[in-house]
Amino acid sequence: MLFSFELQNEVAKKDVFQPFAEKVRDHKDFVSHWAALKEIRVEYFGGKDFVSFMRNHSELNDILESDRSLEPEDIANILLKKKLLVRCDRVVKSVRPGKKKLSAFPSHLEIYDYQVFSEDDAFFAWTFVKRRTLWQTLLSFFWPFLTLAICFFLYPHQVKLLIFYPCAGVLLLILCVLLLRAMVFCAIWILLGCCVWFFPNILAEEATLKELFQFWPQKDDGKQPEWKVRIFYEIVAVVVVLLLRRYHASDEAATARFANLYSHSNASLNGRQLYQF
């Protein structure tokens, strides 16, 4: 009988902390970020942010009923024990070149060995699936049909072009920037032996939006390449340019014959028009 009462009490606590965790996660003032954890995208937050949030929103403690007087650290530890949270650590623990300190919110995480709450450089990811609202469910259901309608039959041809050309233009711009920055990097690396990226890598997940629009590159502290390696790639580049010039250059004789044929055809067409007139 006593064991049954304790079991029911434990289930009741789980039911209390589950809605509490959902309420905290959905709160508009709660600061959270997204990262990759073992090929899974998770939503996580910092230990300091959780403590600060709980102290500024003490009214959420009423959801815990009999445990409303617990400290934020104790609440977080209970969430960890109930598997509603998992403590994580950053994968990259060294400072990137050109940076003075580690990123405040890393994009790659790994599970920490000791599942205990801490405020000092500790990150915690939610383990439960976030509930969707009704409009999100309806939008996710109708969005594929709307996409098919735009691409195929319902929308007029002008609307299709209005959607297609901006998307194709943005994609072409990204590809051109990637190609241009690679060509500039190769040219400067071969000639001067310096690694210069005039734009941050667009494909890098750790690059922020501010870094993407930073034109001037960061100072390169890497090891300079050997002159033998540079000479080898210089020879390879010259050979590639000569091959392209040899096999993809326009044939001057064929161009002259085409121009002569085009001029004769225009002359004969003008003569016929004058004759009919």
Automatic annotation (TrEMBL):
Encoding gene per record: LOC107832350
Name of the protein: Uncharacterized protein LOC107832350
Organism of this sequence: Nicotiana tabacum
